[in-house]
Amino acid sequence: MGRFHLILVWSLCISLCLLLCPTSAQLKTNYYANICPNVESIVRDAVTKKFQQTFVTVPGTLRLFFHDCFVEGCDASVIVASTANNKAEKDNPDNLSLAGDGFDTVIKAKAAVDAVPQCKNKVSCADILALATRDVIGLSGGPSYSVELGRLDGLSSTSTSVNGKLPKSTFNLNQLNSLFASHGLSQADMVALSGAHTLGFSHCNQFSNRIYSNPVDPTLNKTYATQLQQMCPKNVDPDIAIDMDPTTPRKFDNVYFQNLVEGKGLFTSDQVLYTDSRSQPTVRTWAKNNAAFNQAFITAMTKLGRVGMKTGKNGNIRRDCSVFN
Ligand code: HEM
Ligand SMILES: *[C@@H]1O[C@H](CO)[C@@H](O)[C@H](O)[C@H]1NC(C)=O
Ligand SMILES: CC(=O)N[C@H]1CO[C@H](CO)[C@@H](O)[C@@H]1O
């Protein structure tokens, strides 16, 4: 082979590698195998302890992960506290009353991890939140799954960065699809992730437009609408929160989808998944098949966990999850 050919073959190899070899770091399930081998059981124990103190640990942590990932990526930026000079993500009105117990779960799990000398300041808050989210889903009867790890914590958290990044309870299917698609999530992923509303609470103002309109939102089950009017009278105490899944509020299951079939989706953004013919078949399938829902949920959560991951210079491992180093 002549010199020219050698160079040609060599440059072909390089271009192939540029195409096929991962250019950025990738998440992997065994990321901490040598760094902090017991991280999964340490986090699980801390989360279980917190769960035994209050059930709000479950919806609080799950929603925190979602809000973190949709605003500047899954980088624990949502956990950072505001300072005199910086109003952080968590203080944007759109944080929609994130439950303090979600934050506390991550802080407690981080303390447990850092109590092990080998692990101290070696595990990111973003990874701890991803693990804790998997654990609360399992603790409330949902599926278990392997969590991809290796995210760093973000270096920025601002209240203004939240604007327009989170879905609203009044969204229709096109609005939901386009927001989720901007993070690489399909309609099926969006419908599966909405199944998280099988747990947790909502304040009355998120759906009062549906029950006090004239006529009452016709996609709402009439019996359910009456119940909602009783639980959420006009001028209700703004602190009152009601179960989003009226049937099995403390169980991670597919009853959310069964509720949608009966017209018992709490938000416009929930019920539209059934009323819109493009997503109705998916809702019907998962209403009947819990295993299929679980599988789709795991797929979607894994994709959600890859959104905006920070590596290299774009992140670090925060010593205190609520304060930049
Ligand atoms: C599809 C678009 C979504 C919309 C419009 C939406 C909207 C909301 C709203 C308005 C609340 C009630 C807030 C309050 O009044 O306190 C809520 C609660 C909640 N959301 Fe979503 N959400 C969406 C998707 C998701 C996703 C993808 C997840 C997680 C994977 C999630 C998890 C939760 C949980 C667990 C709660 C209950 C929180 C608690 O009880 O503390 N949501 N959501
Ligand atoms: C409304 O809900 C009730 C139970 O709460 C159920 O029996 C009924 O079938 C629902 N109506 C519709 C139209 O799905
Ligand atoms: C948990 C949390 O930090 N919630 C905040 C959300 O934003 C409002 C202001 O809009 C704060 O008052 C809450 O403390």
Protein architecture, described:
This protein is mainly alpha-helical. The chain folds into 2 domains: 27-166 and 308-316, Peroxidase, domain 1; 184-303, Peroxidase, domain 2. The protein contains 13 helices and 4 strands. The protein has helices at 3-20, 39-53, 57-70, 100-114, 125-139, 173-181, 187-194, 208-211, 222-231, 255-261, 268-275, 280-288, 290-304, and strands at residues 153-154, 201-203, 241-243, 315-316. The chain has a two-stranded antiparallel sheet. Strands 2-3 form a two-stranded antiparallel ribbon. Helix 2 runs antiparallel to helix 4 (100-114) and helix 7 crosses helix 13. The protein is globular, with a radius of gyration of 22 Å. Mean pLDDT is 93; it is low at 17-23. The protein binds protoporphyrin IX containing FE (HEM) and 2-acetamido-2-deoxy-beta-D-glucopyranose (2 copies). One 2-acetamido-2-deoxy-beta-D-glucopyranose binds at residues 90-91, 93, 95, 98, 100.
Brief synopsis:
By secondary structure, the chain is mostly helical.
Which topology of the largest domain does CATH recognise?
Peroxidase, domain 1
Strand content: under 5%
Number of strands: 4
Q: Categorize the overall geometry.
A: globular
Percent of residues in helices: 40-55%
The value of Rg in angstroms is 22 Å
Helix count, DSSP H or I runs of 4 or more residues: 13
Mean pLDDT: 93
Spatial gap, N to C terminus: 56 Å
Largest sheet: 2 strands, antiparallel
Question: So what's the CATH class of the largest domain?
Answer: Mainly Alpha
Could you list the spans in which at least 5 consecutive residues all have pLDDT below 50?
17-23
Derived from helix and strand composition plus strand pairing, the structural class reads: mainly alpha
Secondary-structure element series: HHHHHEHHEHHEHHHHE
Bound molecules: protoporphyrin IX containing FE, 2-acetamido-2-deoxy-beta-D-glucopyranose
